[in-house]
Structure formats: C-alpha cells, structure tokens
C-alpha cells in the first residue's frame, strides 16, 4: 500500500474540517501591530488569543533591543551549534540570569519549547527509568513519553491533579524501578495551558517524604505570571527547591521564541552535553538572545506589567462568573469559558462573535475537549483595558443566550466563504 493512501481516507480529527475551516477557524490570519486590537479579514477585532501576557511584544524597549541586535548581528550569528561554534558570552549571560531569577544553580537555552521538552525527557529518562505523569500533560510531554516508551521504558499516568492516584502510581513505579535498577521521574505542569488550573506542585513535592523521585515541571504559562516576583508556579506554592528540573518557554510572557531548562549545575551540565536536539541544532540567533535579556530585565523591574495583567484577569474572570459562565478551575490568567454545544454550533457561535461583535478568541472543540462541549479560550494581557473586559462580558452574555435558545443549531459548520 502507498503510505499516502490513508490520507485519502481520513485527514485526521481536525484535518477533516480543513476545507471548510482553513483560514477562519483554523490557521486564521491576524494582521497589524500585536495588540488587543488587530485586523482579521480586513476588520478590526478585539483580540483575546495572543500569549503576550505582559504586553512585551510591542514594548518600545523590547522593539528597540530587537532592532538594534538585528542590525548589529543579523540573524545568522552565531553560526553553528553551541558545542561546535555557536557559543557566545550573551548566551551564557542569559542562562545565568534565568537561573538566578527562578532560583536554580544553572540553566540551558533551548531553541524551541516543544522540541526542548521532548528532548529533556528523552535525555533524563533511560529505558530503565520510570515516568509518572499527569493525564492532562501538554502534547510535548506526551511525545517525550512516547519516545521513552519506544526505548522500552515504562510510564504510569494519574488522573489530572489526583494526588491519591499519583501516590498509587508512584507505588507501581517504585516496584518497577526496583526491578530495573532505575529511578523515577514525575512530570506535571505549573499552569495547565488549556484549562488554566495549577498543577498540584505542593502536594506532589510533599510525596518526596515517602517516595524517591525527581520532579520535572513545565511552567510555560506560569513563568512571568505566577509567584510574587513572576518566577513561576513553584514560587507561587513556595516549593522552588522541591522542583528538580524547571522548564519554560519564551513564547508566552517573554513574547518571543526559544526556551530554557533550569536545575542544578550537575544536571544542566549533563543536559548541555547530551540533549541531541541542541547538540545537532544551530545556536539560538543573537537578536533572540539579546531580546530575551531585555525582556527578562523588564519582567523583573517593571512589576506593574504583572500587576496590570492580574487587574485585567481578575476583572474578566469575576465578571464572567457573575454573568453565569463556567470557567472551570482556572487559577491563572488562562480563562476558559465552557459551554455546551456541537462542533457546528461552535463554528456558528464563533462566526457571530467575530463578524457581529468584533471579538476574536480561540475556539476549542473535540477531540481536545469532550464531545458536545465547546470552550472559548481567552488570554488576557497587561495591555487590555477594563473597557475591553466590560464589552467582552456583555457580548458573551448575549451569545450564551443565543446558544441556549438554539440560534446556532446546525448540522454543518458555518459558511465562511
């Protein structure tokens, strides 16, 4: 059989909607300056779908740092992988600054968050080691675990934030690790990026009194938004020392590209010399490194950015709850709005929001969430206003009323042509 034959039969759970949804519901184009107001299909929309938590994307100091670095170095320098010819003092400076900020001995830069997490898991866990992980872990964690299984490794999953079941899985893992002579790696997230709830880091760390394991935390959405200084969810819970390996990306609060992993000097040194995805990849370009240094500086010194973010978050979430909306268990800026409805209803509702209310936010449907449920995912930022919040709450109240009245009932997804 031709390997492409299967494509003719199915394009996948999301791809099946591609012909009807491409360019509107999936792969939409937002144009103009990154801000709460952008252009979608020639029309200005209030945008709630950008992971620009602190508003740094168009901060004047950030734009200047990016531009100056690009003018001085271009995008090619340094040329080659870090280990061979791509090392610079600026890369080392950023790593030291990140490590100090999150309370770890050292850190290592990664070109991409997704591939970085996959490689961290692959490098830390051998076939004799056992992984225990939260069931709602991000796709990058799951792919890392799939790779671990492909090597012959064993893993155990516990229901989302269910500490009793986590403890049970640790018992299984301990038995298995004793048989193989390996260790145990527990993986969870600081902030779960889809539903906005926090990983139970304090409770997981407490299990170290009973079990011997190391804890890896993906804090992509917590870095910059959680904790007194913005150092992340471990700081929020007061368990920085209990998190053995901390990962985060620059794609959220830092409004850039790239990532880092922080841990003890020994662990970071091991990762530095063994992460295949970095050893065989070009070094992070200098403008991104210098830009990240400026972003980190502003994250630490302009505390009003995080304060403004939470002012918007609190107003939005309070207002939506008072209007009768189900926001799940979010404790972070990520604001999911859960509604009951089918995929066609979701598209009709979303089209109404965008075309008649000029509000752009992400729509999430099955298979990401259960069937007959839909989720509007709102990402507040420090540069949104309370007027934006008030308008959005009123618009959402109207679309909810329409949904419950059956106004969006349809057997087909919305016609966007």
TrEMBL record:
SUPFAM superfamilies, per database record: PLP-dependent transferases
PANTHER family named among the record's database cross-references: CLASS II AMINOTRANSFERASE/8-AMINO-7-OXONONANOATE SYNTHASE
Pathway: Lipid metabolism
Biological source species: Plebeiibacterium sediminum
Signal peptide: none
InterPro entries in the cross-refs: Aminotrans_II_pyridoxalP_BS (IPR001917), Aminotransferase_I/II_large (IPR004839), AON_synthase_class-II (IPR050087), PyrdxlP-dep_Trfase (IPR015424), PyrdxlP-dep_Trfase_major (IPR015421), PyrdxlP-dep_Trfase_small (IPR015422)
Highest taxon of the lineage: Bacteria
Protein name per UniProt: Aminotransferase class I/II-fold pyridoxal phosphate-dependent enzyme
């Amino acid at each position: 059989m031709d390997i492409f034959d299967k494509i003719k039969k199915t394009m996948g759970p999301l791809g099946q909607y591609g012909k009807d949804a491409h360019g509107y519901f999936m792969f939409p184009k937002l144009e103009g300056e990154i801000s709460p107001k952008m252009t979608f299909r020639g029309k200005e929309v209030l945008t709630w779908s950008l992971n620009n938590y602190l508003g740094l994307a168009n901060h004047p100091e950030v734009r200047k740092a990016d531009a100056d670095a690009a003018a001085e170095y271009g995008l090619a320098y340094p040329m080659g992988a870090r280990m061979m010819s791509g090392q610079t003092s600026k890369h080392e400076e950023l790593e030291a600054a990140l490590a100090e900020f999150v309370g770890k001995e050292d850190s290592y830069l990664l070109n991409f968050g997704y591939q970085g997490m996959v490689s961290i898991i692959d490098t830390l866990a051998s076939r004799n080691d056992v992984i225990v992980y939260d069931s709602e872990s991000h796709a990058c964690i799951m792919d890392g675990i799939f790779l671990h299984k492909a090597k012959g490794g064993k893993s155990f999953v516990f229901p989302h934030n269910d500490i009793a079941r986590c403890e049970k899985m640790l018992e299984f893992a301990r038995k298995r690790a004793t048989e193989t002579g390996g260790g145990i790696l527990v993986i969870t997230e600081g902030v779960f990026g889809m539903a906005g709830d926090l990983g139970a880091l304090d409770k997981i760390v407490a299990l170290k009194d009973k079990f011997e394991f190391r804890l890896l935390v993906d804090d992509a959405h917590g870095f910059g938004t959680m904790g007194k200084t913005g150092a992340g969810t471990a700081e929020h819970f007061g368990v920085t020392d209990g998190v053995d390996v901390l990962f985060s990306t620059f794609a959220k609060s830092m409004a850039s590209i790239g990532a880092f992993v922080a841990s003890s000097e020994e662990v970071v040194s091991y990762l530095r010399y063994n992460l295949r995805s970095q050893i065989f990849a070009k070094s992070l370009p200098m403008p991104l490194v210098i830009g990240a240094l400026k972003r980190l500086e502003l994250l630490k010194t302009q505390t009003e950015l995080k304060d403004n973010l939470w002012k918007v978050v609190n107003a939005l979430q309070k207002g939506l709850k008072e209007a009768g909306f189900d926001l799940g268990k979010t404790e972070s800026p990520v604001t999911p709005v859960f509604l009951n409805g089918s995929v066609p209803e979701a598209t009709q509702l979303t089209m109404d929001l965008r075309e008649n209310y000029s509000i752009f936010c992400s729509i999430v449907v099955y298979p990401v969430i259960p069937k007959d449920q839909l989720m509007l995912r709102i990402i507040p930022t420090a540069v949104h206003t309370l007027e934006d919040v008030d308008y959005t709450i009123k618009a959402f109240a109207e679309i909810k009323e329409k949904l419950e009245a059956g106004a969006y009932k349809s057997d087909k997804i919305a016609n966007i042509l």
